[in-house]
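All the exercises in this workshop are built on plain-text protein records. The record below serves as our worked example for the rest of this section.
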Amino acid sequence: APADGERLRDALELGTRPVGEVMVPLNRTVTVDLGITPQGLERAAVASGFSRLPVTGPDDGLLGYFHIKDALGVAERTEALPTSALHPVIRVEIDTPLDDTLTAMRAAGTHLAAVAGDKGTVIGFVTMEDVLDELVGAAAL
């Protein structure tokens, strides 16, 4: 059916859209400090509505991210989560196509990417779920 072909073409074109169109801008992102406790991570996740929270170090450098699951099952609720629990974050440029972003995230084994602007500084974040929602959601329409 012609409509099916058109839908497929539209979905494939979406893969060329830049990641900057679906990222969460830095001013709407919640980051946590490296020394956060399981209790603190749970609070931050609930308050923000995000399950993956970027982790910054003493110099505000991006170290990775904690997932809310990292806080679950930790017996000591008031001690800092270990650095071994950090998940990697990759960096992509704002104009990176969505399909290339997905490929890079899968290759790195990460679900969170920092989006860098024209000057190379982080201006937002995108999750694998955000990218897949755009690509798969559009194909399902």
Observations:
- Strands lie at 24-25, 32-33, 52-56, 62-67, 90-93, 112-116, 122-127.
- The mean pLDDT is 89.
- Residues 45 and 118 are 29 Å apart (CA to CA).
- The chain has one domain: 2-140.
